[in-house]
Amino acid sequence: MDAKANGQWTHVKYCEEFGDRVKHWITLNEPFAFSTFGYATGTYAPGRCSNYVGNCTEGNSATEPYIVAHHLILAHGAAVKVYKDKYQKYQKGEIGTTLVTHWFAPKTNTLAALKASYRALDHYLGWFLHPMTFGDYPQSMRKNAGDRLPKFTEEESKLLKGSLDFLGINYYTSNYASPALSVNKVNLSLTTDFHVDLTSEFTKLNYTCINTSSRGEIDVGLV
Questions:
Q1: Measured in whole angstroms, how far is the alpha carbon of residue 91 from the centre of its chain?
Q2: DSSP 3-state assignment of 16?
Q3: Whole-angstrom Cα distance, residue 92 to residue 147?
Q4: Residues 144, 134, 172, CA angle at the centre, nearest 5°?
C-alpha cells in the first residue's frame, strides 16, 4: 500500500471508529515548528538546513521549509475535503487546525516598525492561515521569498479557501518587531526572509526563551 493510500486509509479508519464521539478534528499541530526547525535551522528532526545557518550535513534553508509547509497545507485541504464529503453530515463534527504564533508589537512608534510587526505575523501565522482562508500566501511572503515560495494551482486554491470550521491557536509569548538593519541577499534562508529583528523584554522570572534574529540564528538561553 503506497503512502498516499495508507494515509487515506488511516484517516478513514479513525473517522469511522471514533467519529461518533470525537467532534473536533485537528489536521495539523504547529506546522510552523517542524517546517522551520526541521528544515530551516536543523534543530528538530530531520535536522536539515544550509551549512551557513546551522550544523547540518545537508539541506537548503532557502527552499525546503517552504516546500514542506506547502505540502502540509495541501494535506490539510485534502483531509478536510474527505471529512466534509464522507463524515461531517452524519457525524455532526467539525474539522480545523492548530497553529502557533507569537504576538508582535512595533518596537518604536514608526511606520517601518509597524510594517515589520505585520510581516512577522504574516511569517508566523499567515504562512499557514492565509492559504487556508484565502487560498494563497500573504503578499509580504510572496514579495520577500519570490520564486522560492511554491504556487497553488487554481484547483488547490479553491480546495483550501475556507477549509476551517475552527482554528486553534497556541500562543506562548510576544516580541518587539523592528525592520532588519541589513538583509543578506546571498545566504538566503526562511529565517531571514521576513526582514525583521525580534527582541523581547524579560522579567525576573526564570524560563527558557527562544529568539529569532534577522540573521537566521536561533538563540536559546535560560533567563
A1: 29
A2: helix
A3: 41
A4: 70
Contact yes or no for 61/39 (Cβ under 8 A): yes
Q: In tens digits, what is the pLDDT along the chain, a chain of 223 residues?
A: 244 444 444 566 788 889 889 999 999 999 999 999 999 999 999 999 999 999 999 999 999 999 999 999 999 999 999 999 999 999 999 999 999 999 999 999 999 999 999 999 999 999 999 999 999 999 999 999 999 999 999 999 999 999 999 999 999 999 999 999 999 999 999 999 999 999 998 654 444 444 444 444 433 333 3
User: In 3D, which of 169, 178, 168 has the Cα closest to residue 199?
Assistant: 178
CA distance 192 to 170: 23
Name the pTM for this structure. 0.86
Asked if 11 contacts 86 with a C-beta cutoff of 8 angstroms, the reply is no
Which amino acid is present at 53?
V
